[in-house]
Specification:
two-stranded antiparallel ribbon; globular; alpha+beta; Kinase-like_dom_sf; about 45% helix; 12 helices; about 400 residues; single chain
Length: about 400
């Protein structure tokens, strides 16, 4: 016997106004009902869809379970990738579906993301646990409470370390799940453009800024590409752990958006603590000491599985490698994307100009390399930062609003 919670057929939420949006939302709800019905073997009705944002390539909704013979939650989150019919699923859907499957197989205590209830490759759809209206890390950073923002950052850093420790040694499980789909050509999204970016950047810097890259600096940067194939310190990576992809819940931080989810060298994630947020062009600066505190919080979790990371001589050179890789990759992106506005987040909050972010990353890289004694990289990074300031102006990257 089903329990009626809302009327059927579903009505679209008032926040969805255009006919095209309403049609896409209705199609997503119908597809979710079909997938759930197939999954559980009995009709499940959904209602009252609420648009949660999504992107140009996806629709994300919160829906109420209108009727179900099963003990499902009262609300669910639904994500559908928008793609022309008849085409194969995008790599991003495959990575995300496999990532959620990996975590759903873990105990609730170790599951640091929404539980996956159903998924379907034909409709490119995921039905997941609804984590409610918890604030994001971005919301804390753009708020007015510095202490709350600091606490959220430290909680996120600890949770990232716990995520790495929990998924250590699970690469074979991830690969087995991946083989059930049509595996992407590159399991790690960074492998798609990273090597090309590192190889091509010296010529771009010379053409755009008149900066010559010394052979020693180029050799150092080329060496960072080895992180992509390094067999040590591998764990699951959300791939894009920007502040708006992390919910601060009463059960701890929960990670969202696994469109680039993969198993790889976790130093690429650890660099999010030191750069910070290297894949995000919406990132402001953090106050002095915050990066060190976040790194210590992350390290306290991962040392359980990798005791060697307690040794600065092991950790810090690898962190510098990851920082160099990210700075070179994102600079290549900046110089090769036809429409620079495409690099922005497009969100509702204020964001710095991309050029300010870029200059700050090179200046920070110069300081980090100098502390590490990597003279070639330090000198090169400082030269690039000076050249960029000459082009873009001497703007300083502001702190996140909560710390101003």
């Amino acid at each position: 016997m089903s329990v009626e919670i809302a009327a059927d057929p579903p009505e679209t939420n008032d926040t969805v106004t255009s006919p095209d949006q309403q049609a896409e939302v209705l199609a997503t709800v119908v597809a979710a009902e079909s997938v759930l019905t197939k999954r559980f073997g009995a009709r499940i009705q959904l209602g009252e869809p609420e648009d949660l944002g999504g992107s140009e390539r996806s629709i994300v909704l919160r829906v109420k379970v209108a009727s179900s013979p099963f003990s499902l939650p009262r609300t669910l989150a639904v994500k559908r990738y928008v793609q022309p019919p008849g085409t194969t699923p995008r790599d991003s859907w495959i990575r995300e579906a496999v990532s959620y499957q990996l975590f759903t197989a873990l105990t609730a205590e170790d599951r640091m993301c929404p539980e996956l209830f159903a998924h379907d490759g034909d409709s490119r759809l995921l039905v997941m646990e609804d984590l409610g209206r918890a604030p994001t890390l971005a919301g804390k950073l753009h708020g007015t409470d510095a202490r709350a923002a600091e606490g959220a950052l430290l909680s996120w850093a600890r949770s990232l370390g716990r995520l790495h420790a929990t998924t250590a040694g699970r690469e074979a499980d991830f690969d087995a799940l991946l083989r059930r789909q049509s595996p992407p050509s590159a399991k790690d999204p960074l492998a798609e453009h990273g090597p090309t970016a590192v190889a091509a950047l010296p010529a771009l810097l010379a053409a755009e800024f008149g900066v010559e890259t010394t052979p020693a600096a180029a050799e150092f940067a080329q060496g960072t590409v080895a992180l992509l194939d390094n067999s040590r310190h591998r764990a699951f990576s959300p791939s894009d752990s920007c502040p708006d992809n992390n919910l601060i819940t009463n059960r701890g931080v929960r990670f969202l958006d696994f469109e680039g989810g993969c198993v790889r060298n976790m130093m690429f994630d650890a660099a999010y603590l030191t750069v910070p947020f290297p894949s995000c062009w919406c990132a402001y600066a953090l106050p002095p000491g915050m990066t060190d505190a976040m790194l210590a919080a992350w390290r306290a979790e991962v040392r359980v599985m990798w005791p060697d990371l307690d040794d600065d001589e092991v950790l810090l050179p690898r962190l510098l490698d990851a920082q160099v890789f990210w700075v070179w990759l994102t600079t290549w992106q900046y110089l090769t994307v036809p429409d620079i506005d495409q690099l922005g987040s497009g969100g509702a909050v204020d964001t710095p100009h991309q050029s300010e972010v870029l200059v700050a990353r090179w200046a920070d890289l110069a300081k980090a390399a100098k502390r590490a004694g990597a003279t070639a990289i330090a000198d090169h990074a400082e030269t690039v930062a000076v050249a960029m300031r000459t082009r873009f102006g001497d703007g300083t990257l502001d702190l996140y609003p909560a710390f101003r």
